[in-house]
Design a protein that fits this description.
There is one protein chain. The protein is α+β, with helices and mostly antiparallel strands and about 425 residues long. It folds into two domains: about 90 residues, Nucleic acid-binding proteins (OB fold (Dihydrolipoamide Acetyltransferase, E2P), Beta Barrel); about 300 residues, BirA Bifunctional Protein, domain 2, CATH 3.30.930. It contains 13 helices and 16 strands. The chain is elongated and about 85 Å long. The model has no long low-confidence stretch (mean pLDDT about 95). The protein binds 4-amino-1,4-dioxobutan-2-aminium adenosine-5'-monophosphate and magnesium ion (MG). Magnesium ion binds next to strand 15.
């Protein structure tokens, strides 16, 4: 059976082979300490002269990030029984790495992003990917435990879910097509079949803004529920976020500690989440010095200052319809939507956007006209209001925004293995 460093405890005293990389080395001549990693964890390899001249020579030859198979016996660290070492008996060099570009000194973000394919190997970057994986797992788990099924929505499409200003268009056999901004409209069709559904996949927005919250390709989870209103969907959003935090705090404390994430703000989040209408939020923001107008969307800075004030996430509801999408159902005034953005604490801002959907055919057509959304190409979507239309609601989260918040990162670019930004398509 192959050995992994994370399983070391069960193999104390046994001879094993670590297949991995050497990320650092200390010592010379009489003894070498090899810092080894194999993807599952890290471990120190101790090479002493008793291993023989040839093994010592190989230890000397090893450069940072060289790939190696190291044979030896697992021992407990003399001072810390939770730390394990390998007493090296043999070294098989797989490849001697060239001089590694990422060193100990501080590198700027551009240099690190240019070397993203290598930077991913660092302990912190791996920790972020493990937290991301846990959040995905917890998301699927929550939905599957609550009667949802996973529905795969298309990436290639002939319509714009979230407005035409941030669409990536491609040539589709001579016809224009767009990369999906959200699977929502298709999910609405699907839940008229299955009742409760969610999708999860990459979406694309040609964001020209260079902010710490925007990527041009990011991963979205959309969820949709038939026979559900705004209140019902907010309850699901809150339960999902609490479930994600619970799982991360159960299973990924080691990774968050590696990232030097303060766990207290995450532990404090127990619900109920704070609720404010858009009008209340605007009034509060103006008192705090923002120049936000009554009928405007909240800007990134507004979200930052508002969420720094509270230790729970905030649902901001009832935005003016003109700053939100065409499909949202409106309140009695006809000017505001039955919608909510969920803002994460500590200045992180919007992580979820959601709403009740307009289920009435006549009103939906009216909202489409107001938003200049052509009916052509969306006839199928209007059909959903012709054949057994029901009240329904849904939401979508941006995975990278949630990972950034949970990990306490400054910028979403570190949350995704290969970030796509306005000025970056490589590596
Ligand atoms: O608020 P948005 O635009 O909502 C929708 O797309 C709806 N169709 C979802 C639905 O109701 N099913 O996007 C949803 C979330 C945002 O709250 C934000 O977390 C994230 O997607 N997001 C981005 N993340 C990274 N980079 C970007 N450029 C993002 N734009 C939105
Ligand atoms: Mg939004």
């Amino acid at each position: 059976m192959s050995f992994s460093i994370s399983q070391a405890k069960a193999q104390v005293g046994q001879s094993v082979i670590i297949q991995g990389w050497m990320y650092n080395k200390r010592g010379s001549g009489k003894i070498y300490f090899l810092q080894l990693r194999d993807g599952s964890g890290t471990m120190q390899g101790v090479v002493e002269t008793s291993a023989g001249e040839e093994v010592m020579k190989k230890a000397e030859e090893l450069t940072i990030e060289s790939s190696v198979r190291v044979t030896g016996v697992i021992t407990q660290h003399p001072k810390n029984p939770e730390v394990f070492e390998i007493q090296v008996k043999n070294i098989e060099i797989v490849q001697i790495a060239e001089e590694y570009p990422i060193g100990k000194k501080e590198h700027g973000p551009d240099f690190l992003l240019d070397n993203r394919h290598l930077w991913l190997r660092s302990e912190k970057q791996l920790a972020i990917q493990r937290v991301r994986d846990e959040i995905i797992r917890a998301t699927f788990e929550y939905f599957h435990e609550n009667g949802f099924i996973k529905i795969d929505t298309p990436i290639l499409s002939n319509n714009a879910c979230e407005g035409s200003t941030e669409l990536f268009s491609i040539d589709y056999f001579g016809e224009p097509a767009y990369l999906s901004q959200s699977g929502q409209l298709y999910l609405e069709a699907a839940v008229m079949s299955c009742g409760r559904g969610f999708d999860f996949g990459p979406v694309f927005r040609s964001e020209k803004s260079k902010t710490r919250r925007h990527l041009t390709e990011f991963w979205m989870m959309d969820a949709e529920v038939a026979y559900c209103d705004l209140e019902g969907i907010l309850q699901i959003e809150e339960a999902l976020i609490l479930h994600i935090l619970k799982r991360v705090l159960e299973n990924k404390v080691k990774e968050l500690t590696t990232l030097e994430r303060d766990l207290e703000p995450l532990k404090k989040i127990q619900g109920p989440f704070i609720r404010k209408t858009h009008a209340e939020a605007v009034a509060e923001l103006r008192e705090m010095g923002s120049d936000i107008q009554e009928d405007h969307d909240l800007g990134g800075d507004d979200e930052t200052i508002l969420t720094k004030k509270y230790d729970q996430p905030i649902f901001v509801t009832h935005y003016p319809s003109k700053v939100k999408a065409f499909y949202m159902k409106r309140d009695e005034s006809g000017q505001r939507c039955l919608c909510a953005d969920l803002l994460a604490p500590e200045g992180y801002g919007e992580i979820i956007g959601g709403s009740q959907r307009e289920e009435d055919l006549v009103l939906l057509k009216q909202w489409m006209a107001e938003h200049h959304v052509p009916e052509k190409g969306l006839e199928w979507y209007l059909d959903l209001r012709r054949y057994g239309s029901v009240p329904h609601a849904g939401f979508g989260y941006g995975l990278e925004r949630i990972v950034g918040w949970v990990c306490g990162l400054q910028h979403v670019r570190e949350t995704i293995p290969f970030p796509r930004l306005m000025n970056r398509l490589e590596p």
